[in-house]
Amino acid sequence: MHKPTIDEILAPKPEARPRIYAYSIADDAHAGLLKIGQTTRDVKRRVAEQLRTAAIKNYRIELDEPAERDDGTVFTDHEVRAALARKGFSDSELEWVRCTLSDVKTVLTELRTGKKFSGNHHLTFPMRREQAEAVDMTHGYFMSRWAEDMHAVPRFLWNAKMRFGKTFTTYQLAKKLGAKRVLVVTFKPAVEDAWQTDLESHVDFDGWQYLSKNSGGDPTQIDRSKPVVYFGSFQDLLGRDAAGNIKAKNEWLHQVNWDLVVFDEYHFGAWRETAKELFEGEEEAVAKKEAKLEY
Q1: How many Cβ atoms from other residues are within 10 Å of residue 200's Cβ?
Q2: How far apart are CA 202 and CA 64, in angstroms?
Q3: What is the tens place of the pLDDT at every residue in 188-201?
Q4: Looking at the DSSP assignment, which residues form a beta bridge with residue 123?
Q5: What is the pLDDT of residues 234-266, one digit of tens each?
Q6: Where in the sequence of the chain do the CATH 3.40.50 domains occur?
Q7: Burial of residue 35 (number of CB atoms within 10 Å: 0-12, 13-18, 19+)
Q8: What's the number of CA atoms in the CB half-sphere (13 Å) around residue 220?
Q9: What does R_g of the chain's alpha carbons equal in angstroms?
């Protein structure tokens, strides 16, 4: 049986690393507020002890993350609240801040990376291998077609399985292509949340603009120096007036020279016939000439 040496017995305990936590309380007095603090102990125990004296049970721990930068140094809850204050979020009192969980996560990402991000951009995960392969393969094909004919309109079909991450991967493709105007058209309007969330939450797309019928915004008033994504359903974008003209609300759509057009949920609906009306003027010969590739 191994007997511990004197060095092992007297070995210093590992330094406890601080964690940042945030919790909410479900009552009118704390609506829209988050309590932001730090501890080197177990967060659940720390919060429970903190609220026990006030007999508060209707709380929820919203965040429990390491208070460490990418270089291994640590930051404090004071720095988190100060960063939120600089963004305009009021620090009411006793470490309570009127903000959302996404706002806190964005600040944590800024403190860790030393970079500043707009909105709620806080996710930093990279592409998975299969996502990177899809982007590289599609980008390579597009480049080869444009090398042959700079006016070509190449197409590429992704046979994306469940949980592939098509929205995130599509935006990565758009970024690699240098696309500034991206149109996403779908037969299933219910998928909009994923398209908006991925664009507005990942740091890779900081500064990008998202527009749709539901999100609002005036397409004619966008910052033209920054990339923009417009999401729409065929139900919204199709249709003409009694005279056979494009509906006034959609005229701007046909005036934009889109860098990338994405047909989402391709297996739903009569895409070929429906797309003809939306993209009137495209030669059928061009459509037949394009290679049909699947990934």
Answers
A1: 20
A2: 20
A3: 888 889 999 999 99
A4: 202
A5: 877 876 666 666 677 778 888 889 999 999 987
A6: 129-289
A7: buried
A8: 6
A9: 25
The domain defined by 129-289 folds into: Rossmann fold (3.40.50)
203 near 285, Cβ under 8 Å?
no
- Contacting residues for 109 by C-beta, under 8 A, at least 6 apart: 115, 117, 121, 122, 123, 124, 203
Other CB atoms within a 10 A radius of the CB of residue 223 amount to: 9
Q: What is the rounded distance in angstroms from the CA atom of residue 219 to the CA atom of residue 193?
A: 19
Write out pLDDT tens, residues 107-142: 999 999 999 898 888 899 999 999 999 999 999 999
Q: By CB neighbour count within 10 A (0-12 exposed, 13-18 middle, 19+ buried), where does 208 fall?
A: buried
Contact 67, 20 (CB under 8 A): yes
Quote the CA–CA distance of 160 and 166 in Å, as a whole number. 7
**Hunting for tokens 């603009």 — which residue is that?**
209
d(Cα 152, Cα 290) in Å, to the nearest integer?
Answer: 9
Q: Which two tokens stand for residue 122?
A: 């806080």
